[in-house]
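Researcher: Here's the sequence for the chain we discussed earlier.
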Amino acid sequence: MPSASFLHDLHPLTKVVWSLAVVTAAFFLRGPLPLLLLLASVLAVAGAGKVLRQVWPALKGLAFLAALFFLFQVFLIQEGNTVLTLFPGRGFGRVTDVGLYACTVLALRMLVMTSTIPVLLATTNPKDMVVAFVEKLKVPYLYAFMLVTSLRFIPVLQEQLDLVLQAQRARGRDLEGRNFIKRLKAVVPVALPLLLVSIRRSRTLAISLETRGFGTGPRTHLRSMAFRPADIAVMASCTLLTFLVIVL
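Model: Thanks. This is the structure I predict for it:
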């Protein structure tokens, strides 16, 4: 992966510590405004790493999932004063101030906790991450490889999803209609090709591992990575800020 920014040059474990610090801080923050500020800091890091445009589609997908989570939960909380009711005559679809606030916080927390993953993947070579886990954390190579491979599937699936959507639109399918039932029906021609592509990629990966003798003998690494002063400074800053968030 080219060294395009300061973020690319950091040790993989440094970026993992940053990601864990964001997740921990998001867990302890209680209000929407602090969570929005934390999300803005993640976007600022992505911008400093020159990968904001690259990770933006993944962030939009995560925001969509957070919005779905909000919609599924906001009608289940009945405590508090009524803000609006979708069907007043039937008493269905009641939204309260407590539910609105709580679901907003939960949706933002979920978005913030997952937003660091695309940035981490976009600025870190998977091979370097595996080596860092194995050398520094003494994680068995098989587990480290499985973890990194599963994370790398996220942007790959995002690219495949874009290709499937383009192919379906080229065939004249309406995938963005306002009718909710039609949009649900449109999921099938998108999800099925995506599932088949994922299975093919998994099979290709398995064959590639077998032909290269994966797990048949001792492993060596092309290069070994060491922590630099910048890595220590970043990790110390993340640890200190997280501690302040927890205490305050």
